[in-house]
Amino acid sequence: MKVGDEIVCIRTHSQGFRNGVVKGKIFSLLAIDNCPSCGSSCFDVGVKSRVESNNRCVKCNGRYPSGGIWHIGPSLFAPIQYNSAHDELLSSITEEKSDVKIEEHEETLS
Ligand SMILES: [Zn+2]
Question: What is the mean pLDDT of residues 8-26?
Fold first, then answer.
């Protein structure tokens, strides 16, 4: 996933209901920030931080300034997979509601 991608939430955040980060919702990936302590990446998907002035890193538990953005761990999101062969077809069938295919990625090492 890279900045500018459309991504879909695949798992509702523990505090997602009040912030709108719920499974199936589509976001734009606006920025990727890295924890200054451990370097793990967090996503800025345009959700404002409501109360906390600091983010807590999901990996190392360290806190760092949020800049008013609620940074969210990448594991809650997956890229939206567009099948390029079907893009034209889908765009021509605008009457029909097209279901977005979600592929859940599991981090398995084989
Ligand atoms: Zn960290």
Answer: 89
Radius of gyration of the chain (CA): 16
Nearest partner of 34 among 8, 5, 59, judged by Cα: 59
Domain count, the chain: 1
* Residue at 100 is within a domain: no
Domain that holds residue 42: 6-92
Asked whether residue 74 is assigned to any structural domain, the reply reads: yes
Question: How many angstroms does the Cα of residue 20 sit away from the middle of ligand 1?
Answer: 24
The pLDDT value recorded for residue 22 is: 94
Per-residue pLDDT tens over the stretch 38-56: 999 999 999 987 665 677 8
Residue 84 reports pLDDT greater than 90: no
Centre of ligand 1 from the C-alpha of residue 68, in Å: 18
CA of 107 to the centre of ligand 1 (A): 19
Q: Give bridge partners of residue 55 from the DSSP assignment.
A: 64
Reported pTM? 0.67
Give the Å distance between the CA of 14 and the centre of ligand 1.
18
